[in-house]
Amino acid sequence: MKIKCNSKDLIAGLIFIFFGIAAIWLARDYPMGSARRMGPAYFPTIIGGALAMFGLAISGRSLWRLSEPVRLPTLRPLIMIIAGVVGFALLLGPLGLVLALFVLILISCLGGSHFRLLEVAILYIVLALIAVIFFVYGLGLQFSLWPT
Question: Which own/partner pairs from 109-113 qualify as long-range (CB within 8 Å, at least 24 positions apart)?
């Protein structure tokens, strides 16, 4: 017997259920407390329960709506994003924030299906300005901006 359902909603609902149950399970060793005097387990348990219930609703709704099957994702974007983050971490000290951010954005953008140089350049300029303004000047983090 073949079950017809909206596979995207079913998978999303199962993911919500998994993370909700995981939050409840991780909070099980802490004291719960009450609504008036919340213990450390109160918030994760309530949020985890809500997440699991939301997942049940999405999974249940998937049985009434049809969709095309979900294709397996390619690993290239994930690998390129991880490579970009690792490159950023390794190059932040020697190259400084501005150039390490350039490496991160360039490598991460190579993981996409369409690489447009103008869009990548605009993204880099905007993110570099935001990073410098917020992290270096706003928060006072001790990043060198350029190679030392």
Answer: 110/80, 111/76, 111/77, 111/78, 111/79, 111/80, 111/81, 111/84, 112/77
Give the separation between CA 70 and CA 47, rounded to whole angstroms. Answer: 28
Q: Which of 40, 62, 84 is the last residue of a domain?
A: 62
Q: Count, in order, helices (H) and strands (E) of the chain.
A: 5, 0
Domain total in the chain: 2
CA distance 76 to 81: 9
- Cα 7 from Cα 20, distance rounded (Å): 20
Which structural domain range is residue 99 located in? 76-138
φ/ψ (deg, to 5) at 34: -135, 180
Does the model's pTM come out above 0.90? Answer: no
For residue 67, being part of any structural domain is answered with: no
Cα(131)–Cα(57) distance, integer angstroms: 39
Per-residue pLDDT reduced to its tens digit, 82-127? 999 999 999 999 999 999 999 999 999 888 888 888 999 999 999 9
